[in-house]
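PROTEIN DESIGN WORKSHEET
SECTION A - STRUCTURE
LENGTH: 494
TOKENS:
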């Protein structure tokens, strides 16, 4: 068994709740988390995993003015001798920013003076921390300052990359061909502020989830979906239909418990729904989102083999009935954090790779990036880390659709289908917080040519919706992020 031990200074031991310390995990060389057990006892953080190999520690840590952000160390060997936690986190951040900037600079990226200055100051603070003997408060002070400066440097580096990459794309394309839209829920009816939607987006993602359409076994209600597609057609918007199967609690049909112990019956029911839906909307949908979140432990217990059979069956049904329309499968939590706490979880990138190699006609991959939603989303991370994750997924050689959501409020949301606690990034107004986080991510996505579509997961928080406070329209009207999407549409998109 591999054991990693880290010393924590006295002033940091009670900084966070126990649940945050226990969220620490070890990640292997492939970037896939291993099942880990973490606990804080006194001034020692211990992280154990089943294999005795080197790995990187991942741990959320508060960054000045930003709130908690996921940090990671360089690769470490299991050892009974403790490492200094903050020093190793600073070392990992320093290596990541310096190595990425070197790679991009060699490829032609112009480094801004502000970035070079921030990186120099951060390196000086890291060197000061390294020179302290033992784990001391002085070392922690220098390491914390280094982490803050390195975060600033990483954001400046990402901004420089995004701006220069988008500029390069515009030299070859007068307008970018990237699809940008938002998710609409049929049960909410025709969206409020419809003209605002059309001026901000060139496509729409219409949820056609099994649980919403076949509310009773064998009885299908397509009326609201018909209305939504009619609205999209009138505005000339391209339609992404689905996910047809959303493998989450509250998203599957309520009657499924009657057959959940009979996998063949479940498979037949899913196939029947998919066939009916695709036949009905063939020619009116430009991309089929076949299924989402099958990589996560779901509301019914399935083996890895059954999960794969389910994904393959849905994909085959869509391709059989509508062979001309591209079909994708979506994966939640693309960093794979859930694997650290579920022994039997399926690695998202390995699952996607298996489908891509299957020869079933998969046209692309969807990634669901729900930042700041406790338990059901991705822990807040720097824009640089998000870009690096996307580059890793791009090695599969397939177009990528990214669904993004960040909350604009932390209060309870009675209309959210998937209520959960929100990890607050910083002490600032919610709309500003959402805009700051989302804007940088959207620019990074637009900079990457392999990202063919960007979907904001939520439109109107005053109507039934999926995630708490993710909408571009609140009870009081449009949020600032909607205006940002309008500028993107006007300046960059076809």
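SECTION B - SEQUENCE
RESIDUE ASSIGNMENT:
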């Amino acid at each position: 068994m591999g054991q990693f031990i880290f010393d924590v200074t006295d002033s940091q031991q009670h900084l966070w709740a126990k649940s945050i310390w226990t969220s620490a995990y070890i990640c292997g060389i492939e970037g896939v988390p291993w099942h880990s057990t973490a606990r804080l006892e006194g001034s020692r953080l211990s992280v154990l995993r089943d294999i005795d190999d080197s790995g990187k520690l991942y741990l959320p840590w508060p960054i000045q003015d930003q709130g908690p952000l996921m940090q990671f160390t360089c690769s470490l060997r299991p050892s009974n001798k403790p490492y200094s936690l903050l020093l190793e986190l600073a070392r990992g951040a320093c290596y990541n920013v310096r190595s990425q900037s070197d790679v991009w600079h060699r490829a032609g990226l112009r480094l801004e003076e502000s970035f070079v200055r921030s990186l120099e100051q951060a390196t000086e603070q890291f060197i000061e921390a390294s020179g302290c003997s033992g784990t001391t408060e002085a070392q922690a002070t220098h390491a914390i300052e280094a982490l803050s400066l390195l975060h600033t440097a990483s954001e400046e580096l990402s901004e420089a990359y995004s701006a220069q990459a988008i500029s390069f794309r515009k030299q070859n394309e007068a307008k970018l061909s990237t699809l940008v839209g938002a998710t609409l829920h049929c049960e909410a009816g025709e969206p409020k502020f419809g003209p605002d939607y059309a001026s901000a987006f060139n496509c729409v993602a219409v949820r056609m989830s099994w649980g919403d359409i076949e509310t009773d076994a064998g009885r299908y209600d397509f009326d609201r979906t018909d209305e939504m597609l009619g609205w999209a057609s009138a505005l000339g918007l391209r339609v992404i239909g689905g996910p047809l199967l959303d493998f989450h609690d509250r998203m599957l049909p309520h009657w499924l418990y009657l057959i959940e112990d009979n996998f063949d019956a479940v498979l037949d029911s899913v196939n029947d729904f998919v066939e009916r839906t695709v036949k009905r909307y063939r020619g009116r949908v430009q991309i089929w989102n076949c299924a989402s979140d099958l990589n996560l432990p779901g509301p019914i217990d399935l083996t890895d083999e059954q999960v794969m059979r389910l994904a393959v069956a849905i994909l085959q049904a869509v391709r059989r009935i509508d062979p001309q329309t591209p079909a994708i499968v979506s994966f939640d939590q693309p960093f794979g954090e859930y694997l650290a706490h579920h022994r039997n979880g399926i690695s998202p990138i390995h699952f996607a790779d298996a489908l891509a190699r299957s020869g079933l006609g998969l046209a692309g991959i969807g990634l669901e990036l729900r930042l700041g939603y406790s338990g059901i989303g991705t822990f807040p991370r720097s824009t640089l880390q998000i870009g690096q994750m996307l580059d890793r997924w791009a090695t599969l050689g397939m177009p990528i659709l990214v669904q993004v959501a960040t909350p604009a409020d932390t209060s309870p949301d009675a209309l959210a289908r998937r209520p959960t606690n929100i990890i607050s990034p910083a002490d600032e107004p919610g709309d500003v917080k959402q805009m700051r986080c989302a804007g940088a991510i959207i620019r990074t996505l637009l900079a990457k040519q392999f990202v063919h579509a960007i979907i904001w997961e939520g439109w109107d928080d005053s109507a039934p919706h999926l995630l708490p406070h993710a909408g571009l329209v609140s009870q009081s009207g449009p949020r600032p992020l909607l205006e940002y999407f309008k500028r993107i549409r006007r300046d960059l998109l076809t």
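SECTION C - NOTES
Residues 137-172 form the longest helix (36 residues).
The mean pLDDT is 88.
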